[in-house]
């Protein structure tokens, strides 16, 4: 699984800039209307890229092009490039299922499957014969990374819905991590969570970022300033500005960015 | 003010009356059958074949035949119906003309009178398929090209197909789309997603469809009267091409065709009582199976 995505990963020594996710001129069209109007954006490994912007900016659509989830709806037309470690994810040789294991996703509301905690975590691993063998270690490592191990280690056989909302979202994070993805995309993962759960997730992401590319879509401007290394501002399907987070929040280049982060619209 | 109150009161009384009428009908029907039928009811009645022009003996071959018919029908209708529903809901492109046509066909199938299914069974299964098999495999010797329990079960399966398809689709529709997305996001192929997320969630609904099909199938007469049910058979069917006795058809025969209708009346009542009991028993079994599977599948294994 994922073998066809490997060659690019070995190239990371001579082309470190390639490691991670990159889009070039990405356009997404729905019913003649452009949802994304040519996005060129880099999300290298080892940092957290936050994407902010008002509703309808195309943030979620952007994330869904990265692991080709957008294809589930045939009405969307996608053009431009999406590169994972320098290799196009829309290459006909790429297996979609393998790609999705490399580009993990956490949704905006915690979606646990109606199974036990353990079954939720082993769901992805069980799909692959090789990874199935490492099930126990992988589950424990993922739970530890999501700061959930201590809370659930004695209740793995309980139904996942017995957990609190914050715990469920960390379970979803752990579930994505069991597959050891190269990229982790999170779509407003803390939108329904209390401040403590939010902080736990942000802490987990800080610990994780050394090994992967993290793309964090958030509605919460404060979260972006707190938790990310670089921030991209989307507006009506366009990338207005991308800069190191501190710079974007203190001295934005564009007036629109300044207006948005100071809460003047959106 | 007084008038609205009065109108409201009358309306309430009418709705209550409607409920009462239904209860009264059920009590009268079942009471009548039990009062007239329990006299002959005995172990012998359940375990013996009819004797003396159906005036004596029991109805065991008919019980056996009905149970065999319903089981064969279930084996045929569940896979076909579930597969159809899964294709329509999980594979076929949404809003496609084909899906629309198939749905329309299923709705029409549900509206076709049972006797038409019976005639279709004769025309298609016996005359076309059965005779064809005889011609190709048995040199024209009639073996499959005549009424048989297999053809009756398949005809009944067609009759109950819409029930199973609609119930399964209903169950599939109830599964949140987000569960499917989670499975895909974890690298599941479509089949893995269906196998591991959709089917376990839909089992309850599928079995409900099965239960409704069983209820319907164990009571219908018209689809089997030309396709396999026999007037009287001293022996039980042991092969798929054998004819069989069926409870509903047996009731029909005793009320209209027996040599001495008056004399068979007590037996008739008891037969009807047993038919009701059998239907309830088959229903109950199916409901128990569903409860068991639901319990087992609640959180997986």
Contiguous helical run count of chain B: 11
CATH class of chain A: Alpha Beta
In CATH, the architecture of chain B is: Orthogonal Bundle
Task: Give the neighbour order of strands across the main sheet of chain B.
Answer: 1-2
For the record, the CATH class of chain B is Mainly Alpha
Could you tell me the mean pLDDT of chain B? 87
Q: Give the chain pair forming the largest contact, with residue counts.
A: A-B, 30 and 20 residues
What's the SSE pattern of chain B? HHEEHHHHHHHHH
Q: Which residues of chain B sit in consecutive blocks of at least 5 with pLDDT less than 50?
A: none
The whole-angstrom Rg of chain A is 18 Å
Task: Give the fraction of residues assigned to helices of chain A.
Answer: 25-40%
Strand content of chain B: under 5%
Number of helices of chain A: 12
Q: Which regions of chain A have little confidence, pLDDT < 50, spanning 5+ residues? A: 1-16
The coarse overall form of chain B would be globular
What's the structural domain tally of chain A?
A: 1
Overview of this structure, please?
- With 266 residues, chain A is an alpha/beta fold.
- Chain A is 36% helix and 25% strand.
- Chain A has a single domain (45-71, 92-261), classed as P-loop containing nucleotide triphosphate hydrolases (Rossmann fold), CATH 3.40.50.300.
- Chain A has a 6-stranded mixed sheet, sandwiched between helices.
- In chain A, helix 6 (135-145) packs across helix 8 and helix 8 packs parallel to helix 9 (195-208).
- Residues 1-16 of chain A have low confidence and may be disordered.
- With 301 residues, chain B is mainly alpha-helical.
- Chain B has one domain (32-297): Orthogonal Bundle (MetI-like fold).
- Helix content of chain B is 75%, strand content 1%.
- Chain B has 11 helices and 2 strands; from the N terminus they run ααββααααααααα.
- Chain B has helices at residues 2-37, 43-47, 60-91, 97-111, 114-137, 149-173, 177-185, 190-219, 222-225, 247-256, 261-297, and strands at residues 50-51, 56-57.
- The mean pLDDT of chain B is 87.
- Chain A binds chain B through residues 1, 67, 69, 72, 74, 97-98, 100-101, 104-105, 107, 109, 111, 113-116, 119, 123-124, 126-128, 157, 159, 172, 175-176, 179, and chain B through 93, 176, 178-179, 181-189, 192, 196-197, 201, 298-300.
């Amino acid at each position: 699984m994922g073998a066809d995505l490997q060659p690019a990963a070995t190239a990371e020594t001579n082309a470190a800039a390639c490691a991670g996710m990159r889009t070039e001129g990405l356009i997404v069209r729905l019913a003649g209307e452009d949802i994304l109007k040519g996005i060129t954006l880099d999300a290298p490994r080892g940092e957290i890229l936050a994407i902010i912007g008002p509703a309808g900016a195309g943030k979620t659509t952007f994330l869904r092009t990265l692991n080709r989830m957008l294809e589930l709806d045939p009405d969307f037309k996608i053009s431009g490039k999406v590169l994972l470690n320098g290799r196009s994810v829309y290459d006909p040789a790429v297996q979609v299922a393998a790609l999705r294991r490399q580009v993990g996703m956490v949704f905006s509301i915690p979606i646990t499957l109606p199974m036990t905690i353990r079954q939720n975590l082993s769901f992805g691993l069980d799909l692959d014969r090789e990874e199935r063998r490492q099930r126990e270690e992988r589950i424990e490592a993922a739970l530890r990374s999501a700061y959930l191990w201590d809370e659930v280690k004695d209740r793995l056989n309980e139904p996942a819905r017995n957990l609190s909302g914050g715990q469920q979202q960390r379970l979803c994070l752990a579930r994505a991590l069991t597959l050891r993805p190269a990229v982790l995309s999170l779509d407003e993962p803390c939108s329904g969570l209390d401040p403590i759960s939010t902080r736990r997730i942000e802490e987990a992401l800080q610990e994780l970022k050394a090994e992967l590319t993290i793309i964090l879509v958030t509605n919460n401007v404060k979260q972006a300033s707190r938790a990310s290394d670089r921030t991209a501002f989307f507006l009506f399907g366009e990338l207005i500005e991308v800069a190191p987070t501190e710079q974007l929040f203190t001295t934005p280049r564009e007036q629109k960015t300044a207006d948005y982060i100071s809460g003047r619209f959106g | 003010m007084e008038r609205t109150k009065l109108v409201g009161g009358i309306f309430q009384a009418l709705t209550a009356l409607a409920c009462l009428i239904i209860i009264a009908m059920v009590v009268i029907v079942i009471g009548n059958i039990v009062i007239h039928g329990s006299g002959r009811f005995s172990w012998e009645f359940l375990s013996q074949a009819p004797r003396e022009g159906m005036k004596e003996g029991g109805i065991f071959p008919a019980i056996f035949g009905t149970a065999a018919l319903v089981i064969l029908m279930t084996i045929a209708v569940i896979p076909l119906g579930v597969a159809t529903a899964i294709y329509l809901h999980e594979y076929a492109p949404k809003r496609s003309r084909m899906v629309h046509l198939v749905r329309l066909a299923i709705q029409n199938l549900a509206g076709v009178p049972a006797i038409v299914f019976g005639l279709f069974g004769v025309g298609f299964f016996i005359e076309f398929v059965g005779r064809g098999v005889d011609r190709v495999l048995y040199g024209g010797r009639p073996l499959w090209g005549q009424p048989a329990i297999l053809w009756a079960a398949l005809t009944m399966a067609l009759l109950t197909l819409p029930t199973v398809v609609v119930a399964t689709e209903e169950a599939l529709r109830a599964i949140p789309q987000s569960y499917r997305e989670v499975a895909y996001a974890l690298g599941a192929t479509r089949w893995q997603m269906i196998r591991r997320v959709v089917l376990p969630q839909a089992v309850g609904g599928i079995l409900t469809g099965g239960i409704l099909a069983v209820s319907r199938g164990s009571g219908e007469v018209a689809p089997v009267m030309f396709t396999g049910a026999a007037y009287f058979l001293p022996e039980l069917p042991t092969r798929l091409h054998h004819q069989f006795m069926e409870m509903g058809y047996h009731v029909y025969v005793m009320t209209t065709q027996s040599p001495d209708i008056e004399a068979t009346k007590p037996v008739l009542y008891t037969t009807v009582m047993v038919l009701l009991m059998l239907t309830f028993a088959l229903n109950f079994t199916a409901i128990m199976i569903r409860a068991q599977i639901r319990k087992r599948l609640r959180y997986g294994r």
